Amino acid sequence: TYAQAGQNFGLTLLWTLPLLIPVLIVNQEMVVRLGAVTGVGHARLINERFGKLWGAFSVGDLFILNFLTIATEFIGVSLALGYFGVSQYISVPVAAGLLVVMTATGSFRRWERFMFVFIAANFLVVPLAVYRHPAAGPFFAHMVVPGVRGGFTPPLSCSSSPSWGLRSHPGSCSSSSRISSTRE
């Protein structure tokens, strides 16, 4: 996850953010517009345009990416609560149980509001970063100068690839479905 990649590689991966943020924005915007204009979801559009083979590939890809995303989230929960002395054998099952309870018993509206609370909590990182008093020079230098502390190694690809690529596809499909389901 991002925290683990930051811990392992410091500021040296910041240069990827200016490259990845526009890709994510374009991807999300394109899929949301497709859902709003056509009134159907992402998977149905792929089935209609490219056939069942590519539709099945897209759905299979979606399941794999969602599984990997959830796995990295549980790794993040384990690491975060591990800092407070909570065993991973307790934190991961409790997080999994909460996830099942929230998705199986609640409405989408309640789930959406719950996620907005998590988004607001993520903004607490900003005061923590300011409290740390980081030097501005290295921050801006690493934002534009490519490089990775220790080089491109297997630990780099294992710890940071979930942060880089697993967010765009699952999010685009859910955005398209959400927009197409609310279209009148």
SSE map:
Blueprint: H1 2-9, H2 16-38, H3 42-50, H4 52-82, H5 88-105, H6 108-122, H7 125-131, H8 136-144, H9 154-165, H10 168-182
Helix pairs in contact: 1-9, 2-10, 3-4, 4-5
Membrane topology: Multi-pass membrane protein
Pfam families: Nramp
Subcellular location: Membrane
Notes on the structure:
Residues 161-184 are annotated as: Disordered. One of its GO terms (molecular function) is metal ion transmembrane transporter activity. It is a single chain. This protein has helices at 2-9, 16-38, 42-50, 52-82, 88-105, 108-122, 125-131, 136-144, 154-165, 168-182. It is mostly helical and 184 residues long. It has one domain (2-182). The longest helix has 31 residues, at 52-82. The mean pLDDT is 81.
Relative helix content: over 70%
Shape descriptor reads globular
On the 0 to 100 scale, the average pLDDT is 81
> What is the number of helical segments per DSSP (H or I, 4+ residues)?
10
Instruction: Give the terminus-to-terminus CA distance.
Output: 38 Å
Please trace the helix and strand order, writing H or E for each element: HHHHHHHHHH
The strand count comes to 0
Protein name: Natural resistance-associated macrophage protein
InterPro entries: NRAMP_fam
Subcellular location: Membrane
GO molecular function: metal ion transmembrane transporter activity
